[in-house]
Amino acid sequence: MLRRFCIALVLSLAFAGSAQSYERIRLFDSDVRVQTNGDLIVTETITVEAELREIRRGILRDFPTTYSLADGRRVVVGFDVISVERNGKRETYSIESLYNGKRIRIGSGSVLLGRGTHTYTIRYRTTRQVGFYPDFDELFWNATGTGWSFEIESAVATIRLPEGAKIQSRAFYTGAQGEKRDDARIVGEQDNLIVFRTTKALPRENGLSVAVSWQKGIVSPPGRLEQARYFYFDNIAASLSVLGFAMVFFYFFFQWFRYGRDPASGTIVPVFEPPAGMSAAGMRFADRYANFDNKTFTAAIVELGVKGHLKIVEEKGVTRVERREGGKAILDGEEAIKRHFFPKEKHTSLALTQDNHVRVGGASDALKSNLTRLYDGLFRNNLGKWAFGLLLTFIAVVLSLTGISIQFRSDRATDAFIGTLLPVIPLLLASFALNNGFTSRTDNGFLIGVGVIFGIIPAAIGLWYVGRNVGGFYEIIPTICAFASTMLCAFYLEWMEAPTKEGRKILDHIEGFREYLSTADEGSRLEAFHPPEKTPELFERMLPYAIALDVENSWAEKFKNVLAAAALAPAAAASGAAISHWYSGNRDWSRDASGVTGAVSQSLTVAVASSSTAPGTSSSYSGSSSSYSSSGGGSFGGGSSGGGGGGGGGSGW
Length: 653
Description:
Helices cover 43% and strands 22% of the residues. The protein is of the alpha+beta class and 653 residues long. An eight-stranded mixed sheet has the order 7-6-10-2-1-14-17-16, with no helix packed on it. It is elongated, with a radius of gyration of 41 Å. The protein starts with a helix and ends with a strand. It is built from 18 helices and 26 strands. The longest helix has 25 residues, at 236-260. Strand 11 and strand 12 form a beta hairpin.
């Protein structure tokens, strides 16, 4: 009986001892000395009870150095370990990087601790923890951190300000992250020193945060240059991206300002004839800065008809051209069209359908080559300068991606890479289409649609993806800058084109001719320049040029009465003969000259577009181109446990 009693007593004492022997922090003492330059010298004395469960070789102390503000900006504080001791003697430690800070791994992998109490003393310097406000300066300090995996039986925080400072306000908070409990009290205070102590144990992942403010002028705030340097390196992804975009922007702007600007135009006055020796197709080609499109080809076909070499026939939904003999003198480019339309003597008619794409496409290419040879010299495309800008754009995108890889942790960097890189090439190509669509003198909804669908929409999805998975505004700046640089590069391809001085004179002449073709004579300034008499022959002769300049409807409107009167004249066929020798169809020019002119021009252009390319290939209808305060913020009235600088947590290992 006595033996059983002794065994039970021993077991109960053992269990009682075991119940008391759990791993915990007995005391966490944080002593903070504020320096006049804003640095903090912090001494943390951490007394732990080790039972070789989690604390086997030492402890881990995690310290956050990277803070994210609401708008996505980062603040990166300095952190340098001065010394680490255990039980009054130097202890082995190493520094490891975390995604938002540093970890001090204290102890040796080859040495096990003994059970019992161990006191660790960590001294370190940290920067940029002081908040500078208009009326006061403040330290809001997370003394213990809320990331410890152990209970903290007691915590003490001592704040020592520089000589001359006088504490104005003080506050403390306990609890889990974000809580505002007050399980602490002030146990000592002088002008420039204050001591806080908890009044009950802090459960795991609970902590103590304290705040102290003092008068301005004691601690020196960082200068503007230093703040700018902080911002640049804190937000390296945004900084490198903006740098890359600025490089692209200023390069292209400088090159445009020096080489791409059009020479100043002269005084534009109405003129009643095209530039000497210039065909309607040549006029459109020059007016579009040496850019060829299907309407250029259309104008040439109409001019061949007007000059008596072709007849345009619209019948049963098909447009065809018929060869006519004789006719007025034509230019080399127009002669090339005839050769391709009718390569053999037996060829007298050609339907503008895809079945004949070889002949029609060959004629279009021949005309383009002829016009390029004649008029390309009137313009500078500055292609070499643009190509160097394309290289700079590539570098700008690489800078954005480099900043992403430096600043973001791996998973966020991957998301940012995906959202930034995948839309770049489609956006570049689509931007060419958008720019061509918006800058073309004719409305080109097809190109604009292509640009939106294949460029703008993927870019918007990319921005959304990065914003959703990476962070705030400042963290999507790399993506924005990469996209902006890409679009800028595409737009400048056309913006860099500029006429020579001779080209400028030709364009001024064309603009004066456009004014004549598009403006009603009555009540306009044209009357002062004595325009030629309006006759059916004049309408016909200038019609190809009106088509070339996209003013065919206005030109026809000017002649509606003339054509209607001519149709009723006894001399048969005055207007009808003028038109019918080169056009046959179910449209009545005398009744609706403007509507018929526009319809014929459009239907012929569409026929040209569909017949000049092989089935299954893309149409050229769109036209082709030749060319500061602290990281934690204020605490008074708005602080909580876990707020402020410092903090972090730890565990054993």
